[in-house]
């Protein structure tokens, strides 16, 4: 118990207080304790006098310790009314406490400071962590040699003849893009078109008509739109004759400077018939051997929905170059070029496929040319390019749709996609003879009829198209 006694330490703490009082004037210190003894309890005076001999009273100071704090608060009030020396004592006590408390934080500060000192190495580790990512950068050059294998690929097609170097790559690539999208979009095309045809029941498009820019058509595009609505159509596609370089047959087509005008005319009609008729942008692009590159570039100048290949035997340039033999020889050349146009992959569909029967129509006999047509259709079927049933053939010198029913049957046997076009050069002919044309297709063996949007083919059942045209035409009558 003598080792654990804390009272002597308290007495030691109080002793320096007395020594401080001795350094101060001695006389005032004596009366102060006398006055303090009077208000304070006797118990507080006893420890002051018996501090050295209070070994037995060690147990007493422990319970008295809490009341000792209370008297300290009371003397604070007493000195306020009496003399400043009491304040000096009160101030002296905290000074001692402050001195005692000061060393404690001093020791704690280094302890806290030690923590950040240890954290400093952590930042070094972060720097090291940043360094490794920089090391993979040298790996990038290792990937650069990878592109080096592709260069050998281009030389492979170069092994062919000079004339085939440019034609073969473009045909294979474009033919693939023309044929691949046709099959996948077929199911969604039917489902996506039905909801939009609920108001009038319209489902189908007229995919061939012109504007006054071709110099042999009459009527504003809006007039063609109005007729499309009356004909029970869901939409129409303008396919005016494209511009051509070198003054090729300029009297039947827009000029190069009018191309943007054409785009504006179609857009104007589209805006005017919004929510009434789906007006689409197409073009009838001329096929003439040697101008394939020009047509390829032309198709990239606008966001076409439909690119229709037009082979016209009546062009002076065509007649001058290929009308060198017999009538039948000239027709065979025409059909051969029809297959070549499909093989270029530049077109979505081939317009009026047997138009050449209007060349000396009085001598036209399909049986004579049938074998040539059969070979040509085999070639076209391999490309996946569609062919058109052009109803305006009824208005030509050889009064029959292009193509005729026998050629239609041969196309159906080869499952060549078929698209309807009126080839209207006047507004009243939009959608003309479509019911007759659809019946002809069904008799020839077709089950579906196609149209194009964004250069992708969509198929519809022929029976559904016939009923939709009649329903919509009645609703708009």
Give a nutshell description of this structure.
With 477 residues, the chain is an alpha/beta fold.
Report on the architecture of this protein:
This protein starts with 6 loop residues before the first helix and ends with a helix. It has 2 domains: 13-104, no CATH class; 174-476, Metal-dependent hydrolases (TIM Barrel). Strands 1-2-3-4-5-6-7 form a 7-stranded parallel sheet, covered by helices on one side. It has a two-stranded antiparallel ribbon with strand order 8-9. The protein is built from 19 helices and 9 strands. The protein is of the alpha/beta class. The protein has helices at residues 7-23, 26-29, 31-37, 42-49, 61-81, 84-101, 103-134, 139-143, 162-179, 186-196, 221-230, 259-272, 292-298, 316-322, 327-343, 366-383, 405-413, 434-444, 462-476; strands at residues 205-206, 235-238, 278-286, 306-310, 349-350, 386-390, 418-421, 448-453, 456-461.
The level-1 CATH class of the largest domain: Alpha Beta
Order of helices and strands: HHHHHHHHHHEHEHEHEHHEHEHEHEEH
- How can the largest sheet be summarized? 7 strands, parallel
What is the CATH fold-level name of the largest domain? TIM Barrel
Number of strands: 9
N→C terminal distance: 121 Å
The radius of gyration over CA amounts to 52 Å
DSSP helix count?
19
Beta-strand content: 5-15%
What share of the residues lie within helices? 40-55%
What count of domains describes the coordinates?
A: 2
């Amino acid at each position: 118990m003598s080792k654990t006694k804390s009272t002597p330490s308290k007495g030691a703490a109080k002793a320096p207080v007395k020594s401080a009082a001795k350094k101060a004037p001695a006389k005032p210190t004596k009366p102060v304790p006398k006055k303090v003894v009077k208000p304070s309890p006797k118990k507080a005076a006893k420890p002051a006098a018996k501090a050295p001999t209070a070994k037995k009273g060690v147990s007493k100071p422990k319970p008295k310790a809490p009341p000792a704090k209370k008297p300290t608060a009371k003397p604070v009030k007493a000195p306020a009314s009496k003399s400043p020396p009491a304040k000096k004592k009160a101030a002296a006590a905290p000074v001692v406490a402050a001195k005692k408390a000061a060393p404690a934080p001093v020791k704690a500060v280094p302890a806290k400071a030690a923590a950040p000192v240890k954290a400093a190495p952590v930042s070094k580790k972060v720097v090291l962590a940043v360094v490794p990512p920089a090391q993979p950068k040298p790996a990038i050059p290792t990937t650069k040699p990878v592109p080096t294998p592709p260069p050998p690929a281009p030389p492979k097609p170069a092994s062919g003849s000079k004339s085939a170097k440019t034609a073969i790559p473009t045909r294979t690539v474009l033919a693939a893009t023309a044929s691949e999208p046709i099959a996948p979009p077929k199911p969604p095309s039917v489902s996506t078109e039905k909801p939009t045809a609920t108001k009038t029941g319209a489902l189908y498009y007229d995919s061939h008509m012109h504007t006054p820019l071709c110099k042999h058509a009459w009527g504003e595009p809006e007039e063609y739109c109005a007729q499309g609505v009356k004909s029970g159509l869901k939409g129409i596609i303008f396919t005016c004759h494209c511009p051509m370089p070198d003054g090729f047959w300029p009297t039947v087509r827009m000029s190069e400077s009018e191309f943007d005008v054409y785009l504006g005319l179609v857009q104007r009609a589209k805006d005017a018939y919004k929510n009434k008729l789906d007006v689409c942008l197409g073009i009838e692009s001329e096929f003439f051997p040697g101008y394939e590159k020009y047509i390829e570039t032309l198709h990239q100048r606008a966001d076409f929905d439909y690119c229709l290949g037009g082979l016209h035997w009546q062009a002076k340039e065509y007649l001058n170059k290929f009308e060198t033999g017999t009538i039948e020889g000239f027709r065979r050349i025409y059909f051969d070029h029809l297959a070549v146009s499909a093989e270029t992959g530049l077109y979505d569909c081939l317009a009026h496929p047997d138009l050449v029967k209007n060349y000396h129509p009085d001598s036209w006999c399909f049986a004579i040319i049938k074998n040539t047509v059969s070979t040509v259709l085999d070639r076209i079927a391999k490309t996946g390019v569609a062919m058109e049933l052009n109803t305006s053939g009824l208005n030509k010198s050889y009064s029959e749709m292009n193509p005729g029913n026998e050629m239609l049957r041969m196309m159906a046997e080869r499952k060549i996609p078929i698209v309807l076009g009126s080839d209207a050069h006047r507004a009243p002919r939009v959608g003309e003879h479509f019911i007759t044309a659809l019946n002809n297709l069904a008799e020839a063996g077709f089950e579906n009829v196609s149209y194009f949007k964004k250069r992708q083919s969509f198929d519809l059942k022929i029976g559904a198209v016939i009923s939709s045209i009649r329903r919509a035409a009645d609703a708009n009558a």
